[in-house]
Amino acid sequence: MSSTTAGSVAPPRVETPFRRFASEFAESRLALFGLALFTLIALVAIFAPWIAPQNPYDLAQLDIMDGRLEPGSVGGADFTYWLGTDDQGRDMLSGIMYGLRISLLVGAGSAVIACLVGASLGMIAAYAGGRTDSLIMRLVDLQLSFPAILAALMILAFLGKGILNVVIALVVVEWAYYARTVRGSALVERRREYIEAAQCLALPTRRIIFRHLLPNCLPPLIVVATMQVARAIALEATLSFLGLGVPITEPSLGLLIANGYEYMLSGKYWISFYPGIALLVTIVSINLVGDQLRDVLNPRLKR
């Protein structure tokens, strides 16, 4: 009897760091809503070529006679435009789906590259110290002293339009945030015993920095990266709205908003309104996730 009872007792559940992180993250319903919303937006952007009613890049599918139709209107080919059309007859729903692809690609791509560059320079500055630290941090201070939009405008005025040029401009204006964040965390971790032990073992400097020091600086880096993705998307939309972002043949959400700006006062609100709503929802969803990540990964903010 006792052996049967003992055999039926389930083993204790081991709480791994990932389970603890997931449970703490799930405490916020807003964060879960933001994560689900952003996942839906990302899936729509990824599968846009298969689920979009129209290819807005294919000129053969556009009919200028269907230009500026109201939401819910039926076009010449008995095609229903649920969100209306722009001045070129492009379906706004399809344009938003494809525009999300460009905005997310530019935002996430620039954030990843800027994170790699900034984190590497921040780690090197913290570990090397001395003149190397002073030189890198003076470059960071110089970069942060310029308004991001102004620096990006100057870079694009020199490089010209294009997705690659926009990514380069965003990387230049974003890397300093990662460098400063990583350096602050690395300065604290550099005094830990495990770093001293690695140095006593005569491990290569590159291995100490990227195999031992960097993983312990990831929590604040993840939070900054999440916020910078939303910031990069907003900045790219601003640049495209001003006419210095992506080309007209591959419109992002910012360019879609710019295309309908001149019609706002004439009652044709949908050309700018719906892309603006899509941009707002995307940024808000990312910020909701980033706020909860900040609370979970920063022990000082825990209640």
Brief rundown of the structure:
This protein has 303 residues and is mainly α.
Structure, described:
It is elongated, with a radius of gyration of 24 Å. Helix 6 crosses helix 8 (163-189). Strands 1-2 form a two-stranded antiparallel sheet. It starts with a helix and ends in a 6-residue tail after the last helix. The protein is built from 13 helices and two strands, in the order ααααββααααααααα. 37% of the residues are buried. The mean pLDDT is 87. The protein has helices spanning 2-8, 17-25, 29-46, 48-51, 92-128, 130-144, 148-159, 163-189, 193-200, 205-213, 218-241, 253-261, 270-297, and strands at 73-74, 80-81. The chain is an all-alpha fold and 303 residues long. Residues 100-290 form the ABC transmembrane type-1 domain. This is ABC transporter permease. The chain crosses the membrane at residues 30-52, 102-128, 148-173, 269-290. It is a multi-pass membrane protein.
